[in-house]
Design a protein that fits this description.
Keywords: DNA-binding, Phosphoprotein, Transcription, Transcription regulation. One of its GO terms (molecular function) is DNA binding. It comes from Piscinibacter aquaticus. This is Response regulator transcription factor. InterPro entries: CheY-like_superfamily, NreC/VraR/RcsB-like_REC, Sig_transdc_resp-reg_C-effctor, Sig_transdc_resp-reg_receiver, Tscrpt_reg_LuxR_C, WalR-like. 52% of the residues lie in helices and 13% in strands. The chain has 212 residues and is an alpha/beta fold. It folds into 2 domains: 137 residues, Rossmann fold; 61 residues, Winged helix-like DNA-binding domain superfamily/Winged helix DNA-binding domain (Arc Repressor Mutant, subunit A), CATH 1.10.10. A 5-stranded parallel sheet has the order 2-1-3-4-5, with helices on both faces. The N and C termini lie far apart (44 Å).
């Protein structure tokens, strides 16, 4: 039996994932968490084979931050990232941070089950789209985009602002203070040598971080 733990701040999303996985005869969901603090408590109480982790978590740590922490601590479970963000925004970052797979929330439920089974065996799970991105990253000339220098939270802030969200909306969604979000915004502007939100939006569109 594959023991799975879920970490997502939306209860309805967790329920959907739990119901999907529970239908599989070889998978058991042993715990759920809504943020990093709850996850730490669960990890002290239960062991699991696979952690299904969302990128967009509330508070000071994103899912990518959690990946780095778990990797540094050498915890034995494998992490499958399940996110609403398209593969081209976060998949490679997640894999580099230690994830064993990346699945979009809008995908086929059967894909999620297959991903959990694959990851539980210690094998990487990537969609054809991610596989193509990995091949291109290996064969393309090494040219670093400026946004690759951003931290995970800074990139998240850039994408959300470029998607038309206000700082107050971002703060509420990420459960951060508006002041903290403003700090991330300022860092993005400085690192990318941009002047305002409009230039951030143009940059994000040009680099395929958001749709036009």
């Amino acid at each position: 039996m594959i023991k799975v733990m879920l970490c997502d701040d939306h209860a309805l999303i967790r329920r959907g994932i739990r119901d999907t996985l529970s239908d599989a005869p070889d998978i058991e969901v042993v715990g759920e968490a809504g943020d990093y603090g709850e996850l730490r408590t669960l990890l002290r109480q239960h062991s699991c084979d696979v952690l299904v982790l969302d990128i967009n978590l509330p508070g000071g740590r994103s899912g990518l931050d959690v990946l780095h922490v778990l990797k540094d601590e050498g915890l034995p479970m494998r992490v499958l990232v399940v996110s609403m963000y398209p593969e081209d925004q976060y998949a490679i970052r997640a894999l580099r941070a230690g994830a064993f797979g990346y699945v979009n929330k809008g995908g086929d439920p059967a894909q999620l089950v297959a991903a959990v089974r694959t990851v539980s065996q210690g094998r990487k799970y990537v969609t054809p789209e991610i596989a193509q991105m990995l091949v291109e990253s290996l064969t393309a000339p090494v040219v670093e985009n400026s946004h690759e220098k951003l931290s995970d939270r800074e990139l998240q802030t850039l994408v959300m602002i470029a998607s038309g969200k206000r700082l107050s909306d971002i703060a509420e969604e990420l459960k951060l203070s508006p002041k903290t979000v403003s700090v991330y915004r300022a860092r993005v502007l400085e690192k990318l040598s941009l002047a305002n939100n409009s230039e951030m939006t143009v940059y994000a569109i040009r680099h395929g971080l958001v749709g036009q």
